[in-house]
Write a structure and sequence with these properties.
alpha+beta; GIY-YIG endonuclease; Nucleotidyltransferase, domain 5; eight-stranded mixed β-sheet; four-stranded antiparallel β-sheet; 15 helices; DNA damage; Excinuclease ABC subunit C; excinuclease ABC activity; UvrABC_protein_C
C-alpha cells in the first residue's frame, strides 16, 4: 500500500511549477530521486511549498532544499486529514529529514494514560516500556497538535492534571467536565458512578476520533440527542447537537488515511463523484418535471463551475455579500468576489440578493458564466436570483437547513407572469450533500470575513 506513495507524480522542484499546486489542504513530499527526504502538511499547499523558495530559511531547511530534486503532493478534504496522514506517512516511510528532526522540540505524540481517570497529555518521546498507554503520532508540528487538542476538548472534555483537592480551572469553563478531582469528593455513590461513566465515555469517544472513527461517533451522539429529546431533556439534547456540529466542523467528512495511501488521487475521484451525484440528482428532478408538464426546462448539461452567494449583516448594518466560485468541485479563490450592499438600512436579505444578482450580471462575460448558482436560502432568495438570471438559462437552487439539508428549485414554466413553481429535494447523506455544504460554508465564511472588515473599519474614526 505504501508503495503507491513512491509512484506519485514527481514534479521538478522549481518556482515555475508552483502554478500546478492547488490552494487547499494536503501533504507534500520532497524527493531526492526516488528517496523521500521530507514529508510535511499544509492548510494551503501552494503557499506552503512556495515558502521554501524564500531567501530567509533556517540553516537546516537550507540543507534540505539543496538536496531536493522533485516534490509531490496529496490533496485531502480537511486540515485534520492532513495532520493524521502526515503522521502516518512519517511513521511508515521515515524520511531522512523527518527522522533527523525527531529529537527536535517540535515533535509531539498525543498520549492517553491508563489510569482510573485517563489523562490526555502530549509527550516528546514514545516510551515503549510503558504498557497500556495509547500514543498517537508523532506529529511534526507541536503547534498543530495543541490547536487540534484545544478544538476537540470543547467536544469531549478531558483532564490533563493529577487528582487534587479542588476542581481545576478548566472545569469552570467546560473543558474538564466532569473534573476527576470533583468526582472524587462526591459522597453519593450513584451520582459518583454516573460521573465516572460520563468521563470515561468522553475519553472513549476521543480515542475513537484520534483513530478516525468519525462516523461511529456521530451516530452515537445522534442517538443520544434523540434519546434526550424524547425525554424532553432539551438542554442536554441541545448540548449534544452542538457537539455534533463542532465534530462536523473539525472533521469535515474525514476519510481514513489508508484510502489516501491506496489511491493518492482519491481527492480528485471524490470531487468527480460529488459533482456527478449532484448533477444526476438535479437532472433527474428536471426530467421528472419535463415529463409532467411536457415543457422544456433548464437542466444541467455540464457542472464545471458553481457559484454560491451569501449575505452577512448585523441588524441590517454593514451588510455584505459573498460570491465564491468552485471549479470542478475545488475552490478557485482568484474568482471569489465580495459586495458591499448599497441599499439603505432595513433592506431584507432578498433585496440584498437582488442587488448582488444585478451587479453580477454586469460582469457575466468578464468574470465568466456559472453552470449552477447556489444561494443560501429558500424560495424568496431563489426567486430573487432566478428572475434576473432567467434569460441566461442559468439554473439557480437554494440550500435550506433543517432536519435534512434541502435544495429548493424554481421551475420556470410557460413564461407565465407568476412563474414561481418551487419544489424541494431532500439531499441524502453522501457526496452531493458534502459538496453543497462545503460550498455554502465557504460562502458564509467569506461573507462574514468582509462583514467583520466593514464593522471593524467603522470603529476607526475618520480623520
Amino acid at each position: 500500500m505504501i508503495s503507491n506513495i513512491f509512484r506519485l507524480n514527481k514534479i521538478d522542484f522549481s518556482k515555475n511549477n508552483l502554478n500546478s499546486v492547488p490552494e487547499i489542504p494536503g501533504i507534500y513530499i520532497f524527493w531526492k530521486e526516488n528517496s523521500a527526504l521530507y514529508i510535511g502538511k499544509a492548510i494551503n499547499l501552494k503557499k506552503r511549498i512556495a515558502s521554501y523558495f524564500s531567501l530567509n530559511l533556517y540553516e537546516k531547511t537550507k540543507r534540505l532544499i539543496r538536496e531536493v530534486n522533485y516534490f509531490s503532493f496529496i490533496k485531502v478534504n480537511s486540515n485534520l486529514e492532513s495532520l493524521l496522514l502526515e503522521a502516518y506517512l512519517i511513521k511508515k516511510i521515515k524520511p531522512k529529514y523527518n527522522v533527523s528532526l525527531k529529537d527536535d522540540k517540535n515533535y509531539l505524540y498525543i498520549k492517553i494514560t491508563n489510569e482510573k481517570y485517563p489523562r490526555v497529555l502530549t509527550a516528546r518521546k514514545k516510551d515503549e516500556d510503558i504498557k497500556d498507554i495509547l500514543f498517537i503520532g508523532p506529529f511534526p508540528s507541536a503547534n498543530n497538535v495543541k490547536i487540534f487538542l484545544k478544538s476537540i476538548r470543547k467536544i469531549f472534555p478531558y483532564s490533563d492534571h493529577n487528582l487534587q483537592k479542588n476542581k481545576c480551572l478548566y472545569s469552570q469553563i467546560g473543558l474538564c467536565d466532569p473534573c476527576p478531582s470533583e468526582i472524587e469528593i462526591i459522597n453519593n455513590l450513584d451520582e459518583k458512578y454516573l460521573k465516572i461513566k460520563e468521563y470515561k465515555k468522553n475519553i472513549s469517544l476521543l480515542k475513537n476520533l484520534l483513530k478516525r472513527r468519525v462516523k461511529s461517533i456521530r451516530k452515537y451522539l445522534f442517538r443520544e440527542m434523540k434519546y434526550y429529546s424524547r425525554l424532553q431533556k432539551f438542554e442536554k439534547a441541545l448540548d449534544l447537537k452542538t457537539k455534533i456540529e463542532n465534530l462536523d466542523y473539525i472533521t469535515q467528512a474525514t476519510i481514513p488515511v489508508k484510502y489516501y495511501i491506496e489511491n493518492p488521487n482519491l481527492y480528485e475521484d471524490i470531487r468527480k463523484k460529488e459533482l456527478n451525484e449532484l448533477k444526476k440528482m438535479i437532472n433527474q428532478f428536471y426530467n421528472l418535471k419535463y415529463e409532467i408538464f411536457k415543457n422544456k426546462v433548464n437542466y444541467l448539461k455540464k457542472l464545471n463551475r458553481i457559484e454560491c452567494y451569501d449575505i452577512s449583516h448585523f441588524s441590517g448594518n454593514f451588510t455584505s455579500a459573498s460570491m465564491v466560485t468552485f471549479i470542478n468541485g475545488v475552490p478557485e479563490k482568484n474568482l471569489y468576489r465580495y459586495f458591499r450592499i448599497k441599499q439603505k438600512l432595513g433592506g431584507s436579505d432578498t433585496d440584498s440578493l437582488k442587488e448582488v444578482a444585478l451587479r453580477r450580471l454586469k460582469y457575466l462575460h468578464i468574470w465568466g458564466s456559472p453552470d449552477l448558482v447556489i444561494v443560501d436560502g429558500g424560495k424568496a432568495q431563489v426567486s430573487a436570483f432566478t428572475k434576473i438570471f432567467k434569460e441566461y438559462n442559468i439554473p439557480v437552487v437554494g440550500l435550506v437547513k433543517g432536519k435534512k439539508e434541502s435544495l429548493v428549485i424554481n421551475i420556470n414554466l410557460n413564461n407565465r407572469k407568476n412563474n414561481d413553481n418551487f419544489s424541494v429535494i431532500k439531499i441524502p447523506y453522501g457526496n452531493a450533500l458534502n459538496l453543497v455544504q462545503r460550498i455554502r460554508n465557504e460562502a458564509h465564511r467569506f461573507a462574514q470575513k468582509y462583514h467583520h472588515h466593514l464593522f471593524n473599519k467603522s470603529l476607526i474614526p475618520e480623520r
